[in-house]
Each structure stands twice: as C-alpha cells, then as structure tokens.
Amino acid sequence: MDPHTIETWACTYHGLHDGTKVTIKAARDDSRPEPYGWTCTCGESRRSSSYYDCDRSALRHAYPERTLRDRLRQWAAGLRIRRTR
C-alpha cells in the first residue's frame, strides 16, 4: 500500500438521548494525530487513535443505557430467576 494514501472509514449510529433521536457519524482522517473520530447531532464529539476505542465510545454514546455493566446485571438477574423456579 502506498504510504501517502488516505483511507476513509465511515460509520453511522442511531440512538436516543433522553427520548430525542440522535445520529452519530464516525470517520477516519489521516491528516490528524488521532485519525478516528465521531460527532453526534447533540453536539458532542471525540477523537481516538484506535478504531476500536472510537467504535466503542460511539456505541456507548448512542446507547448509554446498555453498558457492559448493565448487560451483566441483566444476565445475572436472569440466572437468579432461573435458580428460584
């Protein structure tokens, strides 16, 4: 691959913030020190040096109520219900 080539990665997420629909657009820009970033229609934006950090951050922003802790808590509650039956 040519080292002067700028690759563009783009992704769009849709979510809710307090009942308001938002759209998050993520993109890659090789002209910046942190090439990966996203912006939300609510006005928030973030930059990252890693694709995975950017992707995770954008998903957490789009779905704030569904963090890993929330999913683990829900899974554990399901186990407790099954044991008591």
Q: Structural class given helices, strands, pairing? A: alpha+beta
| Major sheet strand order | 1-2-3-4
Helices, by number, come to 2
Percent of residues in helices: 25-40%
| Secondary-structure element order, N to C | EEEEHH
Detailed description of the structure:
It contains 2 helices and 4 strands, in the order ββββαα. The chain has helices at 51-62, 68-84, and strands at 10-17, 20-28, 36-40, 45-48. The longest helix is centred in the C-terminal third of the chain and has 17 residues, at 68-84.
Short précis:
With 85 residues, the chain is α+β, with helices and mostly antiparallel strands. 34% of the residues lie in helices and 31% in strands. It is built from two helices and four strands; from the N terminus they run ββββαα.
Write the layout of secondary structure elements.
Elements: E1 10-17, E2 20-28, E3 36-40, E4 45-48, H1 51-62, H2 68-84
Antiparallel strand pairs: 1-2, 2-3, 3-4
Key phrases:
elongated; 31% strand; alpha+beta; four-stranded antiparallel β-sheet; single chain; 85 residues
